Prior knowledge:
The complex is a heterodimer. By secondary structure, chain A is mainly alpha-helical. Chain A has helices at residues 5-14, 17-31, 40-54, 69-84, 97-109, 132-135, 158-183, 191-208, 217-245, 249-268, 282-285, 294-312, 314-324, 326-331, 336-362, 373-383, 395-414, 419-440; strands at residues 33-36, 61-65, 90-94, 116-118, 143-145, 150-153. In chain A, α8 runs parallel beside α10. In chain B, α14 crosses α15 (398-411).
Amino acid sequence: MKFSPKIGSRILADYGMFLVLIVLGVFFSAVTLSEQQPTGPTAALQVVRQIEAGFSAEAGILIPARDLTDDAAFAAELVRLLGERGFKNLFQVVGEPRDARMELERMEASGVTLQVVAGNETTAGWLVFADLKVDFPGLGNPVVLKPRSHRWPNFLKRDNLLNITNQIAVIAIIAVGMTVVIISGGIDLSVGSLIALSAVTACLLIQNLAGALKAGVFGMTLSCAAAILGSGLVGSFTGCMITGFGIPPFIVTLGVMMMASGFAYLLSGGESVYQVPDSFVWLGREASFLGVPNAVFLMVLLYWVAHVMMSKTKLGRYFYAVGGNAEAARLSGVPVRRVRLLAYSLCGLLAGLGGVVMASQLKSGAPTYGQMYELYVIAAVVVGGTSLSGGEGRIFGTLIGAFIIAVIQNGMNLMNVESYTQKVVLGAVILVAVLLDKLKQGGFRTR
Amino acid sequence: MATPLLEMRRIGKSYPGVHALTRVDLSLRSGEVLALMGENGAGKSTLIKILGGAQRPDCGVIRLQGDEVSIESPVRARELGIAVIYQEFNLVPGLSAMENVFLGQELTRAGWIQHDQQRARTRELLTQLGMEFDPETPCRLLTVAQQQAVEIARALSLKARILVLDEPSAVLTPREVDKLFSIIRRLQARGLGLIYIGHRLEEIFQIADRVTVLRDGANVGERAIVDCSRNQLIEMMVGRELQNEFPKRDSRPGAERLVVKGMSRGRAVRDVSLKARRGEVLAIAGLVGSGRTELARLVFGADRADTGEVYLDGRLLGIRSPRDAIAAGIGLLTEDRKLQGLVLSHSVRHNFALPNLDMFAPLGFLDSALERAEFGRFSEALRIKLSGGGQAAGHLSGGNQQKLVIAKWLARRCEVLIFDEPTRGIDVGAKYEIYGLINDLAWQGKVVVMISSELPEVLGMADRILVMHEGRITGEIADVRASSQEEIMKLAIA
Lengths: 447, 494
C-alpha cells in the first residue's frame, strides 16, 4: 500500500504545479518534434550494427569523411569499432567528393571489391556514390549505408534538458533562500544585486590576490568563499535592520538592493573582470560526475538539504511558525528575531553562491549581472506554491516553479519566438499558473 | 396575532459531510429582542450568515412581514433592512466615525462628498444611541464600545429593521454592557427587531424577551424568557442535565510556589506583588483594562517589565522573553487564542509541537514518531475533537482550540499555568470540561492563575481572588464562598 491513490493526490495537492510543468513539457515536445540525425559515436555504432548484420568480416568498406573535426571523429570511431569486430578491409578517404572519386578510381584499378560505403548524413549523399554500379562496375555492387534518422522532439534531447537545468541553476539556487525568507513572512529584493556584488568580488579577489590567470584551485576556492560570505554578511545586515528596528522588509531590501548594486559598480569600476584562469569555469560549465553539470549537481544537493531542513528539523518548523503567526510563535517560545535574522543571512549566502556560479558560467564578473533576477526568483517561489503572506510553501515546489519558468523560456527559444513576445508570454503564464493554484485550493477567498 | 417581522421556516444547509442546519425555524416580531443561543457549532453562525446573505440556504423559506424574499447577497440583505454586526467589526481603522458610517453610501452632490451633512447626520444617530463623541475621530482611536456604536449607527443609517448582534458583549466592560443594553432598549422602542447572540446567561435574562435555542443544527426550544430558568436554558443547550456549572473539587492549598514581587510597567501595572500556592486556583478579577492581562504578560516575559522579580519555589527566575519563561516552566494561555495562541493555518499537531520542539527534536532533527505519540496521548486525554492531526487549527471550534492550547502547555510539563479568559467564546459544555481540566491541574499541585471577567466563573472556580484596578491590586478575597459579585465589583471599581 505504499503507493495508494491517497499519496498520489497528496503529491498533487502539495505540488500541483508539477502538473503544469508536465503539461508544458508535453506541449513543447509536441511542437518541437523533428527528424533527428545521430552524430558522433552513436551514429558510428549504428552504422557498424548495419554492417555487422549484412556483411562478413572480409567485406571491403570505404569510409568517406570531410575535412572536419566531427567527420574525423565519426570516421575514427567507425574504424575503431569495425577493427574491434574483425573487419580488415577498410579504406578511408578524407576531403571532398573529388577526392572520393579519385580513391574509387584507384580502388577499381587495383581490383578491389567494395561491398559497403559507410558515410554520415552528408557524405552518404554525395553524388559520386549515387550510381556506383554504373560508374565503377569493377568494384562490384557496393551499398551506401548511413546512420538512420528518427523523429524525436528537440525539446527532449539530452543536451537541451541539461541546458535548461544549467540555465536555471543560478535562479533555482537563490530561490532556495528566497523560499525560506518568504515562508518566514518576509521578502528579499536584494538578491539580484548580490549576484553582481558576489561575482565581481570573487573575480576581483582571484585577479588581484590569487594570481589572476595563474590562480590555483585553493586561491579560487578561497576567493569564492570570501565572496559568498560577504553576501551572507549583507544578508545578516538586512536581517538586523528588519528585526532590530522593525523596518518593513520590502523597504530594507530595496535599499540594500541599490547599495549592493552600487558597490558592485564601485569595486569593478563599471568594467567586467575577466582576468581569471580557464579552470574557473569548473563549477559553471563542466560536468565531472555522470555527465551532470556541476552547477546542477550543487543545485540538487542544496534542494535536498533545504527540504530536509524545512520538513524534518526544529529550525524548519520555526521558519513556518514565524511566517504563520509571529506573535503566537513568540509566545510559544520561538526565538522569532533570531529565526528571521537567520532566514535573511541564509538568503544572502545563497545569493552569493548564485553569483559565483554565474561568474563561473560566464568566466568573468560584471556589475551588470543579475539584473531583474530578484523578480524571476520571486516568481519561481510563488509559482511553486509558496504564499507571499508567509507560513506556507514547499521547497520542492520552488524547484518546480523555477523549472516552469526555464521550460517556457527554452521552449519559446526552440520555437524561434522573439524575445519581446517571450516576455509577454512568460508574464502571462506566471499569472495563469498562480491562478490555477488558487482555483485548486478550493476557489477564491472572498474575505 | 400580527404577522411576524421576520420568519425563517425549515431552513436547511449542509456543507460537504456536515449538516450544519436541519429545518431550523426562527421568528422575530418588531420591538422584540430574541436571544439566539446554543453551543459553538450548534448552527447559530450559519443561520445568521444565511440571514445576512453571506450564505445561501439549501432549502427553506424566509419571509419579511409576510412576503417571501430571497437573500442572495449581503447587498440584498442590506436593501431589505437586515443588518448584522459581527464580533469582528467591519470598520476601516484609519477612517473617521462618520466616514465609516457612510462608507459605500456617501452623501454626495454631483460627486462631491457632503461632509457637513454626513457629520450632522452621524452626530444625530449617535445621540439617538446615547453616545457622545466627535464623529471625526478616526475609528482606531475609539474604544470598542464606541466602535460598536459606529456599527449600529451605520445599520440605522441604512434604515435597518432587523439588527443582529453577534456576541456584542464579549469585548465590553460591565459598564459598557449596561450602555449597550440601554441602546438596545432604545432600538426596541423604535420598533426594530433584534437578534442577540450570546453565551452569558445573566445578560440573556436581563435583555431578551424570548429565546431560541439551537443544538446540532436543529431547534431545541423556543420560550419566553420569563418562563425559563437558568438551569433549563443550560440543559436545552447542552442536551443533558448539568448538576452544576462548575465541577466540584477538593481544594487543599499547600506551600507558596509562585511569588511575584514589585512588578511594574508604565501606567499599566504598578508595583504588583502576589503569591500563588500549590494546589490552589488563584483568580485575578477586574475590569478590562485594569492591568490583569498586562500583568500576566510581564510574568511570562512577553513584555519587558520596568521593575519586578518572579520566583518559583524560592528560585529567582531571570525572565527576559517568553522563551525564558517557558524554559522555567511557565505557560500562558492568551486571551486571544486566534491571534496569539495558535497558528491557525497550520496543522493541529504542529501547533501542539511548537513549544515542545526542544523535546521532540533534541538534536535539531524531529523525532516525528515521538511527536505523533505525544500528540495522540494529549489529544485523547483532553478529548479534543478533530478529524486528524493534520487538520488546520483554525478549523477547530473555540472549545477545542482552547483545549489544544492547554495540551500544548501540558506536554511541556509546565509548573505554572496562567489562563487569561479561559472560557471566552466557548460554549457551556466545553466550558465545563475546561473547568474540569483547571481543577485537575490544581489538584496535581501546579500553580494555576486564572484571569476572568466573568464574575460567576471567578466565584465558582477560585480558591482565592485578587482584584485589580488601574494597574494595582486593590483587594484580596480569601473566603470565596462568603463573597459575592457585588464585593468583587466594589473592589474592581475601587
